[in-house]
Amino acid sequence: MTARIGVVTFPGSLDDRDSRRAIRLAGAEPVALWHKDKDLKQVDAVVLPGGFSYGDYLRAGAISRFSPVMETIIEQARAGMPVLGICNGFQILTEAHLLPGAMLGNDHLHFICRDQKLRVENAETAWTGDYTAGQEIHIPLKNMDGRYVADEYTLDMLEAEGRVVFRYLDFNPNGSLRDIAGITNEAGNVVGLMPHPEHAVEPLIGTGRTDGLPFFTSILKKLVTA
């Protein structure tokens, strides 16, 4: 029996179906989860997808953080369940305090959409085991509020503990401090990043590469060997 990975749909989610497709391509069973339901349907892991939940009112992810489903996800994540937040999902994870720091508007004040080069900094999380540290990959990026910020103490802590998972290369697209594109919690089960790996799982779409697929194969291997 394969692993079951839930994908939450919030009002304004855009990439929930893409995430479910990526999970299916990796060989796991995608499970649709609704933001108003606390029941996670016995999934083994959860993806919070990209989009503009609740129209990004107040702050990106600020309202979604209080959706009923998040109550269960926060509890389960703290107990060790793997959770991946992509773009808006990353914003929700910071608002829910499952990851430190915050997301602000891009420093150039414009929406950006491009293929982004990244360096893998940590290949030991639940979602990055099929990468190697130092590997350079290309993942689509699309955001308006993608600038990762935190105080110097938090940034130094993330660096010292190896919790920066991805870093922007060649070009910082949004002004994120220390070129941070993605981070993890201390346990390594919760990962958030701004680029969209679900858009780089087939050679005919996205970057024309499959650099995003290892996110989903990594978690599948982690779950089936647990």
TrEMBL record:
Superkingdom: Bacteria
InterPro entries: Class_I_gatase-like, PRibForGlyAmidine_synth_PurQ
EC numbers, comma separated: 6.3.5.3, 3.5.1.2
Catalytic residues of the enzyme: C87, H196, E198
Pathway: Purine metabolism; IMP biosynthesis via de novo pathway; 5-amino-1-(5-phospho-D-ribosyl)imidazole from N(2)-formyl-N(1)-(5-phospho-D-ribosyl)glycinamide: step 1/2
NCBIfam families per UniProt: FGAM_synth_I (TIGR01737), PRK03619.1 (NF002957)
This protein's name: Phosphoribosylformylglycinamidine synthase subunit PurQ
Upper taxonomic lineage: Bacteria, Bacillati, Actinomycetota, Actinomycetes, Kitasatosporales
Protein's gene: purQ
